[in-house]
Amino acid sequence: MDFDLSDEQKMLKETAYKFAVAEFTPVSMECDRNETYTPEIRKKAAEYGLVGAWIPEEYGGSGVGILGNALIMEEFSKVDMGIALNVVAAGFGSESIFQFGSEEQKKTYLPAICSGRMVFSGAFTEPNAGTDVAGYRTRAVKDGNDYVINGSKMFITNGTVCDFMVAQCITNPEEKKHESYSLIIVPATAKGVSRNKIKGKMGIRTSDTAEIAFEEVRVPRTNLVGVEGRGFKQLMHFFDTTRVMVGAQGLGLSEACLGASVRYARERTAFGAPLSSFQLTQKKLTEMAVMIEALRGLVYKSAWLIDVGRPDYQLAAMAKYLSGQTAVFCANAAVEIHGGYGYIEEYPVQKWYRDAKILELYEGTKEAEIMTIGRAL
Ligand SMILES: Cc1cc2nc3c(=O)[nH]c(=O)nc-3n(C[C@H](O)[C@H](O)[C@H](O)COP(=O)(O)OP(=O)(O)OC[C@H]3O[C@@H](n4cnc5c(N)ncnc54)[C@H](O)[C@@H]3O)c2cc1C
Questions:
Q1: Cα of 278 from ligand 1 centre, angstroms
Q2: What does R_g of the chain's alpha carbons equal in angstroms?
Q3: Closest-CA residue to 112 (of 55, 156, 185)
């Protein structure tokens, strides 16, 4: 058993961190304030091979695997979790194309994502169904060589900035619920697609989130990903990977919280001594560090399992679950250790506190993860 990262993985981590410090830090606070998406950072990251890095080299990626991609996400999330999402999840949804799509689909879309020319989104959640992934209502009806799509999607990351989306639609209503869905690639500029940016998010305000409506949207039947009726199963496989990525987001954010808290606790004095000398402060730092190391184990292991061809949906759900718990705990502790200064814009901990909460909501709420793990147990 070897717990060490390889030299290449260590270098990748260092490159990603340096990139994030150089590119994210100068704009992070202002973009958070103004809810600005940063396409130029994504394009620059693509030049460094940091977009779609998990995609094999034959399809234009860096071939660093899911573990490599998680390391990038971790390092980026130490600086700005929203911009990290813009860059690392620029191909959100394309995981299914890689796993289940045709060779032609892979060659058309994957290299374009990696080079920064194309952005994808994964359009699953609907206004009336999120956790209930078998409750989506968007319909795709066959008409000649096309599908005609009607319905709406909610809270879609990259929604207004994407070129294509992978949308979950009912294609086979006559089948049992779980066998009625299919994933279909929809061009964002297709006639009948309307997209509205959702403003006023609590956190990850530097990411783009949108509601999307499909009205008589016509796409060729060749845009089907894989086999009709397999959309539900494909989505479950999709979560194996994306939940690990959310795990990595929480890992990076939590590490940033701990680092900032240790620094502050050593500098700030009260009652004539540094905060770090008080056992109550040490308890908070200790609990943060323990949770972070446990999370690191889950994230790296579940990523590694995917890379060796043994994805484990339970472990991915555990990584995602602990990610939210750890990040929310660490961000809260970081604000507390910073006292009043933790509550104002001058210090990033207030932003991390707002950003952390999404990790208990998207890619399956924490209750959804509990249901997944609990059912399996
Ligand atoms: C910023 C942001 C980005 C997002 N990005 C994307 C994206 O790119 N693509 C996408 O498709 N979606 C995306 N989402 C949607 C996200 O995945 C959903 O919001 C999430 O899955 C929860 O669904 P919901 O909001 O409909 O809540 P609901 O499903 O209505 O749940 C509300 C509450 O009820 C609980 N609950 C529901 N069912 C049960 C049950 N059986 N037992 C116990 N408790 C239950 C939930 O845990 C939650 O606490 C995003 C959301 C946000 C906020």
A1: 40
A2: 21
A3: 55
**Number of residues in the chain:** 377
Catalogue the long-range contacts made by 3-9 (C-beta closer than 8 Å, 24 or more residues apart). 5/71, 8/64, 9/64, 9/67, 9/68, 9/71
Classify strands 181-187 and 139-143 as parallel, antiparallel or unpaired: unpaired
Beta bridge partners of 157: 209
pLDDT digits (tens, 9 = 90+) for 228-285: 999 999 999 999 999 999 999 999 999 999 999 999 999 999 999 999 999 999 999 9
| Set 74, 228, 363, 369: catalytic member | 363
- Secondary structure class of 197 (helix, strand, coil): strand
Name the residue with tokens 């490159």: 15
Predicted TM-score (pTM) of the model is 0.97
Note whether 300 and 344 are within 8 A (CB): no
- Tell me the C-alpha distance between 302 and 95, whole Å: 16
Encoded tokens for 305: 């399992």
User: Which residue in the block uniquely carries the two structure tokens 């992934």?
Assistant: 133
**Cα 132 to ligand 1 centroid, rounded to whole Å:** 8
DSSP label at 221?
A: G
CA of 307 to the centre of ligand 1 (A): 28
Give the residue, out of 160, 236, 362, with the most ligand 1 atoms within 8 A of its beta carbon, to mutate for a pocket test: 362
**Is 363 assigned a catalytic role?**
yes
**For ligand 1, atom 27, which residue shows the shortest CA distance?**
130
How confident is the model over 301-318, as pLDDT tens digits? 999 999 999 999 999 999
Domains and CATH numbers, the chain: 7-114 (1.10.540.10), 120-228 (2.40.110.10), 232-376 (1.20.140.10)
